[in-house]
Each structure stands twice: as structure tokens, then as C-alpha cells.
Design goal:
- With 396 residues, the chain is α/β, with parallel strands linked by helices.
- Strands 5-6-4-1-7-8 form a six-stranded parallel sheet, with helices on both faces. It has a six-stranded parallel sheet with strand order 11-10-9-15-16-17, with helices on both faces.
- The chain is elongated.
- The structure holds adenosine-5'-diphosphate and magnesium ion.
- The site of magnesium ion has 4 residues, from α14.
């Protein structure tokens, strides 16, 4: 795999470099609420502009339906890039149309243009090979070489990550390389005990990861919304908690095969509704949750149990919040687990958009973690052992 350093060594002054970045940041009313992904790609953009490249940056944001939608405009991100980079930064109001062509043509050495959201174009995510290739060709026409630094998108067979590298000399950016190196350490020969903490909303999203990780890990701690389907599978009442009834049988099987490795909550924080002033109670998992009540966080005894496993661990991967951390009464479990993960005596890796956001919005010290992955789905699929189309394309 050729890298950004290889490209810089070749020399990029005056060359047009198309950078696929992952600038898919959370927005609330047009304001960026977490700029982690922007900061993560700045070193790559700085290196290229300082070396005199003409830099064309593209990214997706959210899930627009293949047509322009102002809600998902990258304009706020362009403004943030203008503040964060010393050189000239412009914004194209379309992705491969007139605005983009004019902006690319106007680039001087060291300038950067951010193209509008890739997913405003149906070709970006199309399952139709020809439609994707046609869009990829339009993007590739803007550049002489291609750098992929969008780790968060490498698990997608999309035009900008899968088809463009077939058309241009391609290089892996620093962020992609760093992510792959850390994940390789997890899938290779991790120092033991190797403990994985999984949470988040849906167990169906993560069943593949669970079954793939089980043979490799020493303990798998499970919290978040997904634990209730497992608790139900072990015969406990879960009240009105998040429950995927169609997954109960699969979960029963998992429990039968790996009960000594799976660690489920022993107590949970419940409430009737999800609100800032919700009245909460702590109940024993084995005692069951009454109808009308939802499990919304792991309880204090579970926090202690998980923390004890994490204290002994030498390698930890954590994905998925332990509760509805966005709402204060249900944030304690996620905060405590995040603290325990950051204190791990060994390699600690956080993967997942919401988990990484939790680390930052709960005010934890990012530097205390071994690595915070910018790619949720991508890091999970890597750990599942799947081939990631974007990485395969870079290796070709
Ligand atoms: P990540 O992005 O880190 O992979 P997910 O997207 O899988 O995580 O899940 C994050 C979401 O799960 C959060 O929005 C959180 O509110 C929700 N969640 C966590 N615990 C629960 C719960 N007990 N009930 C409902 N939702 C939950
Ligand atoms: Mg998420």
C-alpha cells in the first residue's frame, strides 16, 4: 500500500490531489457539536497544502437520499476548515458540477477546496456499477492523484472509496494507516487478558461482531440497549426496554455456547421515560423490569463488575455506550466504563461514532486512551474479519 509519505516524497507541488476525508460530523441546527473527525484529518490536509499541492477534499455527511438537501450541507465544515488551515480554503456548492469545476480550476498551489456532500449524487452509493463508475470518473477528473484518509468509510463499496482508486494513482492517508495498525494489533496477538465491551442500541447490528470476537477474547462485557435482548434470552423480564424479539433465539444460542465469556449486567437503571428530569430506579437484572419501565443504563453493581474486569485487562476494545448517555440521568454507566477503559494498563481502543462522541461530550481526556477510532462501522467490520472494499482498493 503506497502512503501519503510516499506521495510527499515524490513531490506534490502543483499537482491536484483528491482527498477522500471523513467529515461526517454531528450537526445540531447547522452547528458542529463534535469536531473530532475534522481535527483527525487536519495533519493530512496541512501536509499537502504546505507541500504546495492543489487539494480537492470530498466527504459525505449524514444520509441524504442522493439529491441535494441543505440539512446535510458541508458548508459548516468548510467554515471550520477555513479557521483551522493557514492557506486559502474555498467551498464548492455542488460536488462535480459547475461550482466544483470552477473552484478546482481556480486552485493555486497550496489552496484547498471542499466539494459539497458526495451523497447529494446518486452515483456515490449506487449498487449499479456503471452509475458508480461514471460518478467516480467525474471526481477523478478533478485530480492527478488520490489520497484516502476516510477510515470511517472504507467499509463501504462507494464511488469515492472503491471506484476512484481504480482511476488514479492512490495512497493511504496517515489516519487510515494509524487505524489499520491499531486494529491489526487487536486481531493479531493481543496481550491478555483481552476484554471487549459492547453496548449501543441494537444487538442485531452487532451479532456478527459478537460471534466473531468470542473465540478471540477472554471476556465480552455487554451493556447498552442491546443487553436487554440477551437478558430476555436468559429468561429475565425486561419490561419496556429495547428488545429485538426476533433475535432472542440467536441470543439463547450465544449464551449456551459462551456463557463463561459473556458478562451481562447484574443491575440496571430504569425509568418510565427518557427525559432530563426522569425519575430513576435501580433494579436487579435477575429480578426483572416491570411493564411500563425501560432499562436505560447499567447499574452501579454492574459498573463495579465491568471495572474489575477492565482493571485486569491488558488489551481492551470498547464500542457502544452503556446507556442513553445523551440524557444526564442515564450517562453514569457510560462515563464510568469510559473512565475504566482510559485507565487500562495496556492498549485501549475506542471504536464507534457515538462512543467516541461520548468520550468527548462527557469531558474525558482523549489522550488517556490508546486510540479513539474515527470509524465505528469500519472498525467493527475489520474486527469481524471482513474485507473492507476501500482498503482492498488501496492495496491493488
Ligand atoms: P456506536 O456509534 O458507538 O457504535 P451505537 O450507534 O450502536 O454506538 O449506539 C448508540 C446509541 O445507543 C446511543 O444513541 C444511545 O442512546 C443508545 N442506547 C444505549 N443504551 C440504550 C438503552 N438502554 N436503550 C436505548 N438506547 C440506548
Ligand atoms: Mg452510532
Amino acid at each position: 500500500m503506497r502512503t501519503l509519505d510516499d506521495l510527499l516524497a515524490e513531490g506534490v507541488a502543483g499537482r491536484r490531489v483528491l482527498v477522500r476525508a471523513d467529515l461526517n460530523v454531528p450537526l445540531r441546527d447547522g452547528v458542529i457539536t463534535d469536531d473530532g473527525r475534522i481535527r483527525a484529518v487536519l495533519p493530512t490536509l496541512r501536509a499537502l497544502t504546505e507541500a504546495g499541492a492543489k487539494v480537492v477534499v470530498c466527504s459525505h455527511l449524514g444520509r441524504p437520499k442522493g439529491a441535494p438537501d441543505p440539512k446535510y450541507s458541508l458548508r459548516p465544515v468548510a467554515e471550520r476548515l477555513q479557521q483551522s488551515l493557514p492557506g486559502q480554503v474555498s467551498f464548492a456548492t455542488d460536488t462535480v458540477g459547475e461550482s466544483a469545476s470552477a473552484a478546482v480550476a481556480a486552485l493555486n498551489n497550496g489552496d484547498l477546496v471542499l466539494l459539497e456532500n458526495l451523497r447529494f449524487n446518486p452515483g456515490e452509493t449506487s449498487k449499479d456499477e456503471a452509475e458508480r463508475s461514471a460518478f467516480a470518473a467525474q471526481l477523478a477528473a478533478f485530480a492527478d492523484v488520490y489520497v484516502d484518509d476516510a477510515f470511517g468509510a472504507v467499509h463501504r463499496k462507494h464511488a469515492s472509496v472503491y471506484d476512484v482508486p481504480k482511476l488514479l494513482p492512490h495512497y493511504a492517508g496517515g489516519l487510515v494507516l494509524r487505524e489499520v495498525e491499531v486494529l491489526r494489533r487487536l486481531t493479531g496477538d493481543p496481550e491478555r487478558p483481552y476484554v471487549v465491551v459492547l453496548g449501543g442500541a441494537k444487538v442485531s447490528d452487532k451479532l456478527g461482531v459478537i460471534s466473531n470476537l468470542l473465540p478471540r477474547v477472554d471476556k465480552l462485557l455487554i451493556g447498552g440497549g442491546m443487553c436487554f435482548t440477551l437478558l430476555a434470552a436468559s429468561g429475565h423480564d425486561v419490561g419496556d426496554s429495547l428488545l429485538e424479539s426476533d433475535q432472542i433465539d440467536t441470543c439463547k444460542q450465544l449464551l449456551a455456547e459462551a456463557s463463561e465469556k459473556l458478562v451481562l449486567p447484574v443491575d440496571v437503571v430504569v425509568a418510565r421515560d427518557i427525559s432530563e428530569d426522569a425519575e430513576t430506579q435501580v433494579v436487579e437484572a435477575a429480578g426483572g423490569i416491570q411493564a411500563g419501565w425501560k432499562g436505560l443504563d447499567i447499574g452501579p453493581r454492574t459498573v463495579e463488575l465491568f471495572a474489575e474486569h477492565l482493571r485486569q485487562a491488558r488489551t481492551v476494545f470498547w464500542n457502544g455506550p452503556m446507556g442513553v448517555f445523551e440524557v444526564a440521568p442515564f450517562a453514569a454507566g457510560t462515563r464510568a466504563v469510559a473512565e475504566a477503559v482510559s485507565a487500562v494498563n495496556g492498549l485501549s481502543v475506542v471504536g464507534g461514532g457515538d462512543s467516541a462522541a461520548a468520550v468527548r461530550t462527557l469531558g474525558l481526556d482523549e489522550a488517556a486512551f490508546g486510540h479513539i477510532s474515527t470509524g465505528g462501522g469500519a472498525s467493527l467490520e475489520y474486527l469481524e474479519g471482513k474485507t473492507l472494499p476501500g482498503l482492498a482498493a488501496l492495496e491493488d
